[in-house]
Every structure is written in structure tokens, then in C-alpha cells.
Amino acid sequence: MSTDLAPAIAALRSGGIIAYPTEAVWGLGCDPFDESAVLRLLSIKQRPVDKGLILIAAGSDQLDGLLDWSDLPDACRKAVLASWPGPHTWIVPATAGVPRWITGSHAGVAVRVSAHPTVVELCRGFGRPLVSTSANLSGQPPARRSEQLDPALLTQLDAVVAGETGNLQSPTTIRDARTGDVLRG
User: Fold this and answer.
1) Single pTM value for the model
2) pLDDT, tens digit, 9 for 90 and up, residues 79-88
3) If we measure between CA atoms, which residue out of 48, 3, 9, 60 comes closest to residue 30?
4) What is the dihedral of CA 94, 96, 102, 106, to 10 degrees?
């Protein structure tokens, strides 16, 4: 693990909120299983809990027990897995192991296995997936560079990971794993 990530991982383990670079934009993250951390993140973003949040992982193994693969046709499961690692977010049927503060009002959970080296190292160091939502207030444009992070937002965070976003020009596409339909493109 990079020593640069140690403060962010320590913050995550103590219920903190971090900012980190992703494939296209800066993200906010926390431990998805820490309800108070997630609710604090949502409060910072001014985002309602019913919208749900994305989980980002270093490998599909970090999503074991969270995704109900049996509720997807085999071809759909294979399509999801074949797209990872990479900038592909899928809504997959969730197991009871995914908290309602992550799924929001949905039966599925948005998940991505990233190829971004900082994200991979962060998730591996933390030992599980992270919440991944754009580092901006709801309705505001996402930050593509660290200099674009809102100073008011930064004062509410526990750590900021150094690094650069990937070369994606817009946030990852979100697709429904059952149908392949694009929900955000």
C-alpha cells in the first residue's frame, strides 16, 4: 500500500469521508457498511438517500455476498463480468447484505470494478468496496481535477487522496444488468 493512501484508509476505517480520483471525475467515498458515514456523506452532498449510491471495488471478489447473480440470466452475468475491470457501472440485483442506505429505493445495487490504479489500491488497502459518488454538491458539476473541488466541500472531508482522474470524458455509463439498458450515459 502506498504511504500516500494510509491517511485515507485510516479515515475510512474510523467512519470518515474521503475524496479520491476515479476514471472521469473526483469521487467522495466512505465505508458503505457504516450507516453514519454514509448518511454524513449524503448530508455533505445534499443528496437524498432514496437515490442510492454506487459501490466501487478493486475486484469482483470484493462484491461477493452483495450481488444476487442467481437472479440474472447467465449471459447477463457474463456480460457484466467481462466488462470489468473498467469504467462500467451496472445495476445488479442486491442481496440482503447490501444496506438500504446504499440501495436507496431500488432492489438492485450499482457496482463497478475499477481499473483506475488509485481506486484499486485504495479498495485493496481498505479491504472492501467503497461508496463512490461524485465529489460535488447535488446538481453542481463534478470536479475533473483536484483544483476544481469546492473549498466548502473540502472542509467537511477527513482526507483527500492525491492523484489524477483517468481519461474518461464523462462519468461512467450505468446500465441495467438484466436488460443492458443505459440508465446514465
Assistant:
1) 0.94
2) 999 999 999 9
3) 9
4) 50
